[in-house]
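Suppose you are handed only two things: the residues of a chain and a line of SMILES describing guanosine-5'-triphosphate. What would the bound structure be? This form records exactly that question and the answer produced for it, so the two can be stored side by side and reused later without any lookup.

QUESTION INPUTS
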Amino acid sequence: MSRNKPTLQEKIARLRASFVNQLPARLEEAQEQMKLLKSDPEMNRVSAVELHRAFHSLKGTGKSFGFIDLANVAEQAESYTQQLIDLPADKTPSGWPDTLVGLLHQLASQVQILAYADLDNNHPQDAPFFDVEKTSSMQISSDSPLIYICDDEPDQVDHLANQLRCFGYQIEHFNDTQSFHKAVINKRPDAVIMDVFFPHGPTAGTDELASLKEITGQQLPSIVLSGRDDFEARLSAVRAGCSAYFVKPAKPLDLAAVLDDLMNDKPDEPYRILIVDDEPDVAEYHGLILEESGMLVYQTHKPEVILETLRTFNPDLVLADMYMPVCDGVEMAAIIRQVPEYLGLPIVFLSSETNRKKQFKAMQVGVEGFITKPVIPEELVASVALRAERMRTLRSLMARDSLTGLYNHTTTTEMMNTSLAHAMRQQETLAVVMIDLDKFKAVNDTYGHMAGDQVIVALARLFKHRLRTTDVIGRYGGEEFALLLKNLTPEKANQLVNELREDFSKIIFNAGNKQFKVTFSAGISFYPGNNRSEDLRMAADEALYKAKEQGRNQVVLACAGGKHDD
Ligand SMILES: Nc1nc2c(ncn2[C@@H]2O[C@H](COP(=O)(O)OP(=O)(O)OP(=O)(O)O)[C@@H](O)[C@H]2O)c(=O)[nH]1
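ANSWER OUTPUT
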């Protein structure tokens, strides 16, 4: 019999119950430490530090799960042990064991109360867990964008639709607003290209967009493409919320550029958050809140594996506990900062520590901020998202080419290494494709450098639309591109690159009143067969050279050992 997946409430209820189940063992441990402390007339400071950590953790987790009475007693005990630790070695206050024993008794009665409490009806007091909104910016769609064109002049539309299809857009054409209306209600497109004038009304197209907005409550991303170039038509487009207005005949490439901008409002990859907390339940709880908002979370409970985990998970932000047994959060942050690659990685402490001096010490090793326990889910999500976004922007500036937004040479080379290592570990295949525009010098010389740039941008756009999000697209040099295609057979990779080549060769570019087309050549190499990333690159380069030699506008497959399958 199949069971539904547990809801967030159910998962959190389980975590709270698990915390309560662990309380007797934790209390017993604290009592053991207390015995050690009492047996030592000099007061063993190691045990005092251990006790302090145990109380601190009970306070933080207790607050997070909404067990406020328990957390309050733990806080008093934490503060008292801190005073003991801070005293000079030769000064031990009389009566200290009684105070601590008293606090431990109070904790024991709280544990008893919780053991018999009805946890289902005892929800945390200040944590509106279930209202964390799923931010729409976190979902990824790998499908080709769907564009509806509504226009009653089929000749013009055919050419536009064919050009846009070359970029990987799915195009559906409607001759009248009625069939367009039905189609939108049935399946909402990613964007619309709409004419203004139709036989049944001078602004029937834009009126239709406005009425759809009213009916559905949502604005359709839309562009106007019209024969009209007058104030009334343009105003109707503004009022219908259209993003751009083109007068016929418009260049398909210009429309594709605007469509790209509209698509760019689409989601990014989810933020990657690494949680380091020695208490699995606490890590799980904070992880649930972040996952619920669409982030990708990885947890580790051991600060000693931090560097390996950073390498494999590559987070946008580290959310760490401040007190952990092997090393504390500040020490762990200092270790992270020793690695130049992670100098800019945001580290945020999630802690019940409110001591300013301690917070300042953490800031000195480059910790970005503190989120105080118990967390308010919305605040946790907002402050993590804000910092992770900043990290993304910074990384993107460093890793991407400014003309195309593709990965630059350095990043592409790094990704070739990591993709190959990943393919080897997972026993997957990897295809490296080197692509070079044909006779591009002549394009620049004949039509100008700006026209040449337009070609480079168009090819980048074609790759972005047509390849999977798991594939890597890099601008390897001026007019040279590199693709890393995962898990494809040589036949499939060859077929895919040939389709891209054919579609690209059909795109019509404009320079002044001249029109021209451009082609590219490609060489493909594979793992397995080439087992070092340098070999993969060289084999793909040689195959590309062969494609150029054989007449350009073609794809050549490289085999291991430098042979080619033409
Ligand atoms: N417009 C523009 N041109 C570029 C850019 N980067 C490189 N190029 C030009 O690309 C051309 C490359 O020319 P070549 O290496 O001689 O090769 P080709 O003319 O493409 O000929 P084949 O590769 O043999 O087909 C040079 O004219 C460069 O100036 C760029 O960012 N924008």
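WHAT STANDS OUT: Residues 436-442, 444, 449, 452-453, 456, 478-479, 548, 552 surround guanosine-5'-triphosphate (CB under 6 Å). The longest strand covers residues 430-437.
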